[in-house]
Amino acid sequence: MVVDPRQEQLRVEAIVDEERTFDAGTAAGAPVRQTNLWKDAWFRYIRNRGAVIAGAILLLVILYCIIWPFVSPYDPNAVTFADKNQGPGLSHPLGTDAFGRDLLTRTALGGRVSIGIGFVATLVILLIGIAYGSLAGFIGGKVDNGLMRFLDALYGLPYLPFAIITLAILGNASFWTMVIALSVASWFTTARIVRGQIITLKENDYVRAAKAVGARWYRILGRHLLPNTLGVLVIAIFLELPGVILGEAFLSFIGLGISPPDSSWGQMAEEGRRVYRIVPHVIAIPSIAIATLVLSANFVADGLRDALDPRTRET
Amino acid sequence: MTKFVVRRLVWTVPVILLVILMTFVMMRLIKGNPFRTSERAIPAEIQQNLERKFKLDRPWYVQYANYVKGVATFDLGPSLVLRNRDVNDIVKEHFPKSLELGALSFLFAFVFGIPLGVLAALRANSPLDYGSMFFSNVGFAVPSFLVATLLIYVFSLKLDVGFPTSGWDSWESKVLPTIALGLGPMAYFARLVRGTMLETLQQDYIRTAKAKGLRWGRVITLHVLRNSLIPVVTAAGPILGFLITGSFVIEQIFAIPGIGRYYVTAVTSRDYSVVMGLTVLLSVIVIFANLIVDILYGILDPRTRDART
Questions:
Q1: How much is the pLDDT for A105?
Q2: In whole angstroms, what is the distance from residue B98 CA to residue B88 CA?
């Protein structure tokens, strides 16, 4: 995936976490108002104006993609040559493409595909990352060392060639093959983050206590360790999502996207590329949609990180 | 320090072997046959001869060993589709253009991104800071194909300032692709530098430098900048990835005969040896870049020598 600075920072923190010995127990003070992590995080999040706006925009874009195709007066696939290549106007707010299809409706449909692939691939990436990272972190020792060495070897490899080869292996490009292709070389960061988190958590007193009272390994992992990585994972979703959506767009743009008539934003951009010299809005609109989504997801990730993990708050 | 460098160097060998193995296995998983397509059926004997010629009839581990030997001697084997062409020829023909594009874009990103980040950090929370951070956030989010097509539309078609829209020969033809590919990394640099600068500005030694009456300009150049730019070295890895990914798209749009564009052609024509050779080449470049970054970082920041081997 396109690695962005904050992701790199998380990775570095994961490395630092590995070395950090946790000094447990702060001074016992006066009883404090009882609250929980998520309530706390929520209050911190809604105080961050930029993150709230970004979250609202993200939600609006998703709702538009889901709802608009049902409401729209236009059939997204109806070809009307009389209306072709219209700029934004009253009857077509975002204009039409080379086949006279309404872009406002098509963008919503394309968004369903792009965002759908984005979220599903992100979930797959998280699942692989959780499995790999918790395995390494929880077992520790030689296994951990070996698994991490393997990860180091793969870290930083360009994902696009491997995604392209994966698509070639799977044959045709459909929703699911895109998901697989985009996950195959993109889970390394998540695995590293999860592992770092587990290693740190493992040293906590409550884990030792659980072990001392005879809790089985799956109980420790499932009840104490994994739930505590949830915060990091929620952040990871919004860190991965932009990269996956851009990746899908790149693959579609170089002609390896899912087959028509289904269309993603990347494919709409690819179609727009053929006519951009005459009507640049056809490529601009799906690209701006991608940029809006990526930008707001980035801000949400920032906000979530500040809210869930104040330790890493940016200056 | 020597020990660190040697250990790091030795570790690179199994990493490269592993990456070649992975690529090798993936290539073998691809169904279909480069010699026989649905339009072009060939007799079984010829098929066998062809497989013998390209040593595709040997067991996989022999093929793998041969391939590793080839990579070690800088021979990536023959193309399966283009007769009388080696993968090496293809690399020689297309790689320099991609390299030049990547290097120019990197330079662009560096020259404009670093000052932008520095300015933003020095005027933190001012309109200038917000403006430049907004710009770099947007620059990071906008897909490079939009940047590229907009640049062509505005500068070549509307303003007609004489930048060609395709090719890679005159310097004019290199301006737009360089900007289009370099904008993302530039935004990355700006954000990273701003972050590290702000962190450095809060250090005790900066306060000391100020307290002992050093001129502010001197503090910035001598203490702040020097220490803030060290973490920027680590950006080389992600930026390289960004440039490789971006070059696939940018070369396509500007019709630059580079590696990224050829890669897609090779995949669609099922020229497996070319795809494999190019993948291995790109991976090895990344691995060596990581190696250099780690060693450089070890020199610049001795604390990391033991942590990152």
A1: 82
A2: 15
| pLDDT at residue A25 greater than cutoff 50 | no
For residue B61, the tally of other CB atoms under 10 A from its CB is: 9
Are B145 and A168 within 8 A, CB to CB?
Answer: no
Question: What span, in angstroms and rounded, lies between the C-alpha atoms of A258 and A263?
Answer: 7
3-state secondary structure (DSSP) of residue A49? helix
Select from A158, A242, A277 the Cβ nearest to the Cβ of B241. A158
Cβ of residue A4 closer than 8 Å to a chain B Cβ: yes
Comparison of pLDDT for B188 and A310, the residue scoring more? B188
What is the rounded distance in angstroms from the CA atom of residue B296 to the CA atom of residue B15?
19
A153, A284, A294: residue with CB nearest B141: A294
Which residue ranges form the domains of chain A, and what is each CATH number? 62-312 (1.10.3720.10)
Judged by CB atoms closer than 8 Å, whether chains meet at A157 and B234 is answered as no
Tens-digit pLDDT profile for residues B129-177:
888 888 888 888 888 888 888 888 888 777 877 777 777 777 777 888 9
The CA distance from B290 to the nearest CA of chain A, in Å, is 8
Tell me if chain B has a CB within 8 Å of the CB of A260: no
List A residues 17-56 in contact with B (Cβ-Cβ < 8 A). Answer: 19
Nearest-neighbour CA in chain B from A39: distance (Å): 29
Taking an 8 Å cut-off on Cβ atoms, the answer to whether A165 and B264 are in contact is no
pTM: 0.82
Q: What is the pLDDT of residues B249-263, one digit of tens each?
A: 899 888 888 888 888
Q: Tokens at residue B166, please? A: 């395709």
Tens of pLDDT, residues B85-99: 788 888 888 888 889
Residue A124 above 80 pLDDT? yes
ipTM: 0.83
Q: What residues of A are in contact with residue B290 (Cβ under 8 Å)?
A: 155-156
Cα B243 to chain centroid, rounded: 4
- Distances in Å between the Cα of B294 and the Cα atoms of A147, A151, B25, B190, B235 are 20, 16, 29, 22, 11
A27 CA: distance to closest CA in chain B (Å): 27
CA distances from B46 to A63, B50, B85, B107 (A): 58, 6, 20, 51
